[in-house]
Amino acid sequence: MTIRMLLTLALIAAHGPALAQQDLSAVEVSITPIRAGLHLITGRGGNIVASTGTDGTFLVDDQYAPLTDKIRAALSTVTDQPVRFVVNTHWHGDHVGGNENLGNAGAVIVAHDNVRQRMSSDQFMAAFNSTVPAAPAKALPVITFGESLSLHLNGDTMQVIHVPNAHTDGDAVVFFQTANVLHMGDTYFNGLYPFIDLGSGGGIHGMIAAVAECVALTNADTVIVPGHGPLSTRAQLMAYGEMLAGFRDRIAELKAAGRTLEDVLATRPTADFDDRLGKGFISPERLVGFIFESL
Description:
By secondary structure, this protein is α/β, with parallel strands linked by helices. The chain has helices spanning 3-15, 68-75, 93-96, 99-104, 113-119, 204-217, 234-256, 261-267, 271-277, 284-294; strands at residues 30-35, 38-42, 48-51, 57-60, 83-87, 108-112, 123-125, 130-132, 143-145, 148-153, 156-162, 172-176, 181-183, 223-225.
């Protein structure tokens, strides 16, 4: 199965029919080293970064509840320390589904204010014509923040920074300063077109601004972890940001000239990248629609 197919399945699982209708029993969870006590965990859903050491285990995101035991088993190959903290990069189920299990086991859940607010009530996702029910109390973040916070664990400082109105209105990126590793959540999709959740406050301007902020935060040696897709370099992230800005500018010019969405779609403003990135979960037409509606 190709990376694109895996990403497609992951995103369908995240935002399509109820998780109860999905069989995750065959999902394989793997763990691979990044650097300096950090590991990448992949399975079904958003990429997880785990920091391990004498202070315990710190996770960025936790995928789906049925995968928690497999995630713990993967972690057990590199540490015997429990999960003490989980930072959610945003509220979508493929990034927060393990919260309840880990919260019941004593982990402290951390996220932006808007993540707790959205998880606390039913959310209708217009892009998928589906309603996500409110999360159980133990799944909710117990520490929330507005702009940023820092955690000091395992010999590193983790900056958790809110990037507003990008993929959603509650996005956070997590920068491991000593290791020089940045987890961008779903503000960065590597290898396919991004999903912009307009109904959750996301928008193209925020997506581009988030990329620019992360480029400024990093250097050529930084390992970039996207929400979905393989590990990335800063140069690849810069190219992604330039691509989004180019799409935005072309579509904005057409919209300002009074063109309808149908008119804009007919010009194929993303054509240069469609063969490489447009055959995944988000089609070129859907991406153009997200951008057009958010301008």
